[in-house]
Amino acid sequence: MYDLPDQFEITAHPQNAGAARERVLQAAVRAGFAGMDLADIEISVGEAVTNAILYGSPSPDCRVTLSFGVTPAGFVIQIRDEGKGFDPTLVRTEEDTDALGGRGIRLMRALMDEVDLHYDGHGMTAVLIKKLLAKTH
Known about the structure:
The protein is α+β, with helices and mostly antiparallel strands. It has one domain: Histidine kinase-like ATPase, C-terminal domain (Heat Shock Protein 90). Helices cover 31% and strands 26% of the residues. It has three helices and five strands; from the N terminus they run βααββαββ. The protein has helices at 17-30, 35-54, 104-111, and strands spanning 6-11, 63-71, 74-80, 114-119, 124-130. The chain has a five-stranded antiparallel sheet, covered by helices on one side. α1 (17-30) runs antiparallel to α2 (35-54). The longest helix has 20 residues, at 35-54.
């Protein structure tokens, strides 16, 4: 896990997802992201927060913690819930066109440079990384 400079918590109420996503997006803009990269971050954070709220929180009063910041690896976002977790190696890698859900993690992996999922016995953490590209003028 990363020691990141910015952190905040929300309760696991679905109406908090948009504000959480917006706060991370503001930091991504300050880090220099725009256009499609910013859209990739927005979609990925939205998916991770939604998963943490819907699947990783036993009750709406549970906390979802978001931490984020620029590191040598890039712009890193960590979303942690208080749920029972799951084995990340069991995530489907191929699309099941009959499934109602199950596309969020695959979508995050397609849009971000790195996605790691960790369970430590007390909650699940999704680590999303978007690399900062050197600007050429």
